[in-house]
Structure of Branched-chain-amino-acid aminotransferase:
Amino acid sequence: MKYDVANRRIWFKGEILNVNDAKINVLAPTSQFGLNVFEGIPCYWNDDEKQLYAFRLEDHYARLIRSLKLIQIKAPYTVDEMKKALIDTVKANEYDENLSVRQTIFVDGFGSWGSEEPADMFVAPIPRGRTSAEYNKKGLNCCVTSWQRIDDTTLSPRIKCGANYINSRMGQREALRNGYDTCIFLNAKGKVSEGPGSCFFMIKGGKLVTPQLTDSVLESITRDTVITLAKESGIEVVERSIDRTELYTADEAFLCGSAMEITPVYSVDKYSITNNVGEITGILHKKYLDAVLGTDEQHKAWVTAVY
Ligand SMILES: Cc1ncc(COP(=O)(O)O)c(C=O)c1O
């Protein structure tokens, strides 16, 4: 049976429940301090094959394990158990549409921000149309936010934990207040880092340029996918620090991520870049969609069939 989103089934502490019955006490460190790590795992419905494909599942779990290690929470489940939980949850909802699946390990109980346990997990599928507005636009008018991106000396953006998203929120709220779709953060050195929930790429002189992983960015799976697909297409990829003024003179630019896919940046701080999908951005987006839909034979290993 299919459920409306307000009654969708989620996996919670080993059971599949109506989302309204999955309850966490208000004093749990996850609710008090955002003490959790998570993944947003994209799943794409391939209508020709009547199959739902989860994208780069192993890589998402590898990053989740790295986040757990860095924040010192013991993994309460094995990767196989996590994978089974995702598959069982999607099947319980009989989803045949594109999803972002939130898989979160959280610290429960009555401890505080220093607690390591008890840790548990929930798995919640989010139909794609229901994610934040900036993830569903054709192109983005961005600002450079006045808030600095968190960095490895304070709160590492390498850790995908709930608390990090308060920094994202500050930038995103500022962007919306000032009439932009979203923002781009600079890091502590004043170099371009990333969007609030996405990575940044620009095209200059035919080369694809993106900040290095040490420029205060998440180790994004889409970033890695885009780099791989670009290299295979004969596009030169350069990972280097980017100055703010380079944003304003890019030939093309895009933000990318599991939720964002590849979305063109139309302008930054009202400096126009393009008013449509740029040529290289368009090529990469098409290749990305082929990969996530499981139609790219070369990258079939990136997808896991749910049904
Ligand atoms: C801050 C941030 N950067 C980048 C990304 C893109 O990461 P991924 O491609 O693994 O979804 C995300 C999305 O999860 C994010 O939240």
